[in-house]
Amino acid sequence: MAELGFVRLGFGPDYVEYTQAWEEQRRVHAARFADEIGDTCLLLEHRPVYTAGRRTAESERPLDGTPVVDVDRGGKITWHGPGQLVGYPIMKLPRPVDVVAHVRRLEEALIRTAAEFGLETTRVEGRSGVWVLGDPVENRPKIGGLSLDLDPRLTDEEFDARLNGPEYAPSNAGQRREDRKLAAIGIRVAKGVTMHGFAINVNPDSTWFDRIIPCGIRDAGVTSLSYELGREITIADVLPVAERHLKDVLEQAEPRPREIEPAAG
Description:
The protein is of the alpha/beta class. 25% of the residues lie in helices and 23% in strands. The protein contains 6 helices and 11 strands. The chain has helices at residues 18-33, 99-116, 152-155, 173-176, 225-229, 235-252; strands spanning 5-10, 40-44, 49-52, 68-70, 77-80, 84-90, 122-124, 127-132, 180-190, 193-201, 221-222. Strands 1, 2, 6, 7, 8, 9, 10 and 11 form an 8-stranded mixed beta sheet that branches. A 3-stranded mixed beta sheet has the order 4-3-5, with no helix packed on it. Strand 9 (180-190) and strand 10 (193-201) form a beta hairpin. Helix 2 (99-116) packs across helix 6. The longest helix has 18 residues, at 99-116. The radius of gyration is 19 Å and the shape is globular.
C-alpha cells in the first residue's frame, strides 16, 4: 500500500471532543476519496464519551440516562476517554472491500504494540478486537459464591450485571481471571474509504465501562496495558510504538478485493 501519514489531533490535557473528531474524519474522508491526500491516520485522546454503533441494543446503554452519541460505524456501544489511545485510519481500499481483512490488519498492529511492552494478546473467535485470555473456566474464582456453570450472565436473559455489584463489573474481569478486551475496533467503509477505527486502553479509569455492556458482551470484560503489566504506561509511551506498528502492518499489506462467489444456477 501507499505510505500512511499520521495526524496527532490532541492529547491530555488537550483532549478532543468526539463530535469535533467525527467532523474531521468526514473532512479527511472526502479528501481521501478525491485523492487530494494519501492514506491518513488520525490519533488522539477523547474527552469522556459513550458512542453506540449501529447494532447497539437499548438494554446495553447506560441505565442512568448518560448521553450516548450514535455513530455510523459497525459494532456496539463503547466508551472513549482519557488514558485511551484512539486511532482513525482513513484509507482507500480496493473494491469490493474486504472489511474483515482490514480489521485483522488493525488487530495485528495492536497485538504487536502490546507485545513490545511485554503483554501477550490475541484474537478471540467471533469477537473483534485484541484480547487478554482468561484462565480456564475451572481455575477461575467463583463469582458471588457461585460456580461459573451457574453464572447468571450466561443463563438468565434478564440478568443485568450493572445492578448486581462490583463482582460482575466489566472493569473487574481481570480479578475474575476472565477474557478481557484490551483494544476495541469498529469501522465503516464508505465509497471504498475506511472511517472510524480502534481504541487501545493504556491507563484509563476502566470503571467508565461499568455503566454499559461494553461491545454487547456480558461474559467478559475490559482491561488496560497498565493493569495487565502492573506498572504505569502512558499514552506518550504507546504513541510512537503504535505508529510504527501501524505503518509496518498497513504499508506492507497488499489489500485485495473481496472475492465474490458466482451465483448458483
